[in-house]
Amino acid sequence: MSFPTERPAVWFVTGTSRGLGLELVKQLLERGDRVAATTRSSDRLLAALGDGVDTANLLPLTVDLRDQAAVEQAVRETTERFGGLDAVVNNAGYGFLAAVEETSDREVRDMLDVQVVGVWNVLRAALPILREQRGGHIVNVSSILGLTAVPGWGLYCAGKFALEGMSEALAAEVADFGIKVTIVEPGYFRTQFLTEDSIALPAETTPHYPAIRQMVLDHLKLQGSQLGDPVKGAAAIIDQVRAGKGPLRQLLGSDAHSYATAKVEALRANLDATALTAPATDFPAAL
To answer: Active-site residue among 160, 180, 209, 259?
Structure first.
């Protein structure tokens, strides 16, 4: 089943009260599509959309993505309201800046509950619908930090690396059902992601990581001067879904492409360095 062109498409989007998620909702509604938008606060979403956006085709849903039953109910409400489901965008998430040593058990679990468990809950609820109709598109919004890791972003990277691995497996599993999967890997976008009321910091720090403390300050100062344009980013995601084709990974931003290129080059150097030693652990070839 190709993406619908003869009727408005039905989208289920998580994490919609700010950033790329909010911009996606705005552009989809402007297109005339039907949008179920989940958030932790529907009031905040509606306030962010303002009076200039026609919300007649919007289904705002206050959902805790960690709650499987709540997610299943949200997907049911979507199909009951709009009569189907065409695209799922897993966008919910937040940043966290701390050294690995400084990251508490609770902070680890909270992050992974949103970035991994929450996505899994959405997929379990949506995939039976897409599989039965033999088509649809799943967009998992990762990050360039799902491909490469930098100091201070260990927990965030852990969640995004997990999302990338699951998404690769998922893409192969559902291809025969006509379901397309896209992993979106943005660089730094000019959203509220790096604001003090959005980014999460550890409950406790140690004096042993002064470089990470400086990195946190530098990132907070970066707010408002990030390279990526969220309007263009959301449009690029919509265009790839509507086209129904494109690579598994959709990199957004020249900075993301540079980070990814450096990671590939580092992996190649690592492979070359272990080309002779890797086979040493194999059983001897049978004669």
So the answer is: 160
